[in-house]
Amino acid sequence: MSPHRLAGLPAGRRGKYAVLLLWLALLVAAGPLAVKLGEVQDNSTLGALPAGAESSRAVQRAETAFPGSRHPLAIAVYVRDTGLTPADRARVDADRAAFAAYADGGAVSPPVASADGRALLLSLPVSLDDERRADAVGALKDRLADGAPPGLRTALTGEAAAEHDVFDAFDGMDGALLLATALTVALLLLVTYRSPVLWLIPLVAVAVANQLAGAVVYLLARHAGLAVDFQSQTILTVLVFGVGVDYALLLIARYREELRRHADRHAAMAVALRRSAGAVCASAATVAIGLLCLLAADLPATRGLGPVGAVGIAAALLAMTTLLPAVLVLCGRWLFWPFVPRYTPGADTRDRAADHGVWRRIAGLVAGRPRAVWLGTAAALAALALGIGNLGLGLPDDESFTTEVGSVAGQRLIAAHYPGGSAAPAEILAAAGTADRVVAAARAVPGVAEVGAPEPSADGRWVRVPAVLAGAPDSDAARDTVTRLRAAVHAVPDARALVGGRTATLLDEERTVNRDNRVVIPLVLAVVLVILVLLLRSLVAPLLLMASVVLSYAAAMGAAGLVLDALGHPRLFVGVPLQAFLFLVALGVDYTIFLMTRAREEVARIGHRPGVLRALAVTGGVITSAGVVLAATFGALLVLPLVPSVQMGVIVALGILLDTLLVRSLLIPALTLDLGARTWWPGRLARRSPRPVAAEPALART
Fold first, then answer.
1. CA Rg, the chain, in Å?
2. What is the C-alpha separation between 74 and 371, in angstroms, rounded?
3. Rounded to the nearest 5°, which phi and psi values hold at 76?
4. C or N: which end of the chain has fewer Cβ atoms within 10 Å?
5. Are 419 and 469 in contact (CB under 8 A)?
6. 3-class DSSP state for residue 218?
7. Number of other CB atoms surrounding residue 132 within 10 Å
8. How many other CB atoms are found less than 10 A from the CB of residue 412?
9. Which UniProt keywords apply (predicted)?
10. 3-state DSSP call for residue 203?
């Protein structure tokens, strides 16, 4: 079957029924599987590092030499500002006895007193099993909150408590995010179409696509080892809804246009599919292949996001080019009520821009002084980019949540009464015969507050040495100290020393992200450039578009810097810039693809200048609506209680709005007009004279 016949299948008189039956069967099969997606969610990769990172090698050595060392710690903190009383100490002793029931192996550390006599710490390892660990941490929190002496402040912190707080915060958030996204999309579709019925069709289609995507991701996770975590599952929902509705808006706009030219709605849909398929498929390919570029990342959480997102894009593309057209054709023109597009004889010779009054005037404005327009727009974007100075990189642990949680409160209590790194000391693993020299080297490192006694392994080959840092575990000072500590212990002959721990993990994470930025960002740009060259059959236009993408990203980060600073979250999680770059490049360039593919079609008919202006006029409304919808779906991430999600939502939403309202509406059309037909070099449009047309659009003569 030819591509044209395949594309026209959903528009066929009998084909639409076959498509609907196929989707009904898919939905019946996919629904139960999509519900199970949470069962295969594995969040261990969220904090994981490549196996070659020193902190990862330290964990591996510790697991081998010190069985049970993987168990995450829960740390109970007790503080009385006026000094601990005998009743307080009795309560701590009672808690220690009770905590033994929840400690793996029954081991609870003796109380560790602060130098000021106002605080005590108890630490205990908890189970590696997710369910048992969650139950244990919940019981520890209940015990601390129950019956403490008046005036004694308590909190549970440590790795186990922080993990529990994350999952507590996200409990029920999948449903909340889905509801927020669906309501946002529904409202925007209602405003866009001003029809009591039409808005429901793309919403239902995208919901079906979301079910299909969830089912496929579930099967890949269950049987092909695909890594899925709550981050990638969250992004999956946002991508399917946002991108799916974008494709729906584009197709419905083209279908409405063709309904005025064809008496038969099946013929109108067939033409609409053929003429919009190139832009939609190019858009989907850009986003999906861009997401798959994340497979080149070393950070597991970033790498796992790529395939999950690509599945979502493929599901959205499939639903919007098969299910949606079939439903639209089946229902007929009445779906558009009260603005039903009627067949108008002679519509082919009528100026297509005449029905787009606002965007026709905008096109006329751009046509009047194109150089001034693109220079002014570029200057505005460059000015926005200055806001990047408000952003920092490296989100402190105590700023990771949008609300106060117990593990963060505990960290702050510890920081007020103990050396900054007491809750998460660095861990040195070295050959047993070099223990004394390693300890001496560690004690000489500036920023190391205390070095503990070496603990030998059961086989006598290794020792484990705790080193308390003076700075907070997530501070820049602590990272610098770990860098110096590693250099010092690596220099001890035959020690084979490794430094792990929380700060070492953060340091290695930062280095891994920097490496991923250097590799993935150029790869994404190269992939998008190749797709644009193949789509537009030009070199000049794709290079202009890529330059606009980079400028738009810088402006988005600057605008987000202003907003996030006002919200109190200016320090970015290390993985946010790369992921935001990917989404803004792959998704933001979509709108330019929609514009430029239509421009190429019109330029071939009526020439460069009138063709570009007509493309801007007829696509302006639908692309703006698509951009607002996509920005709003990413904005739904603000309902999540984690600061990295809020940061991602703000950056991507602002970036998409800038792409939609400035880059695609003003910068690109004005640049294209100023450059002239050379935009399409070396393609044939750069040297081809257009065929005469009956009537050149009036906006082209403004």
1. 30
2. 62
3. -90, 130
4. N
5. yes
6. helix
7. 13
8. 15
9. Cell membrane, Membrane, Transmembrane, Transmembrane helix
10. helix
Instruction: Quote the CA–CA distance of 637 and 633 in Å, as a whole number.
Output: 8
Q: Please say whether the beta carbons of 378 and 554 come within 8 A.
A: no
The model's pTM is: 0.80
Helix (H, G, I), strand (E, B) or coil at 407: helix
* Rounded distance between C-alpha atoms, residue 73 and residue 162, angstroms: 10
673 is written with which tokens?
Answer: 């007009």
Residue with tokens 């010190």: 66
Q: In terms of DSSP bridges, do strands 119-125 and 153-157 run parallel, antiparallel, or are they unpaired?
A: unpaired
What residues pair up with 119 in beta bridges, in sequence order?
A: 79
pLDDT of residue 22: 93
pLDDT tens-digit readout, 62-78: 888 887 666 788 899 99
For 115, counting Cβ atoms within 10 Å of its Cβ (0-12 exposed, 13-18 middle, 19+ buried), the class is: exposed
In tens, the pLDDT along 479-495 reads: 999 999 999 999 999 99
Contact 680, 540 (CB under 8 A): yes
What is the Cβ-side half-sphere exposure of residue 552, based on CA atoms within 13 angstroms?
Answer: 35
Residue 66 in tokens: 């010190």
Which amino acid does the sequence have at 530? V
Cβ(617)–Cβ(359) below 8 Å:
yes
* Cα-to-chain-centroid distance, residue 373: 32
CB–CB of 625/657 below 8 Å? no
The position carrying tokens 């402006």 is 555
The SS3 call for residue 608 is helix
Ordered domains of the chain (ranges, CATH):
3-39+194-348 (1.20.1640.10), 72-170 (3.30.70.260), 358-398+513-686 (1.20.1640.10), 425-500 (3.30.70)
pLDDT of residue 700: 42
CB hemisphere CA count around 308 (13 angstroms): 27
- What is the C-alpha separation between 486 and 491, in angstroms, rounded? 8
Positions in the chain short of pLDDT 70: 1-8, 43-47, 68-70, 128, 130, 169-178, 346-357, 420, 423, 688-702
Cα 308 to Cα 244, 305, 315, 699: the distances in Å are: 15, 5, 11, 44
Rounded to the nearest 10 degrees, how much is the dihedral formed by the CA atoms of 540, 541, 542, 548?
110
Burial class (CB in 10 A: 0-12, 13-18, 19+), 588: buried
Torsion of CA 503, 508, 509, 513, to 10 degrees: 150
Query: Are 117 and 84 a contacting pair, CB within 8 Å?
Result: yes
Question: Reduced to 3 states, what is the DSSP secondary structure of residue 120?
Answer: strand
Sign of CA dihedral 88, 89, 92, 98: negative
Report which residue type is found at 93: D
| pLDDT for the residue 407 | 82
Tell me the C-alpha distance between 210 and 191, whole Å. 23
CA distances from 616 to 319, 380, 549, 627, 650 (A): 27, 21, 18, 15, 27
Token pair, residue 609, equals 């200048």
Map residue 571 onto helix, strand or coil.
strand
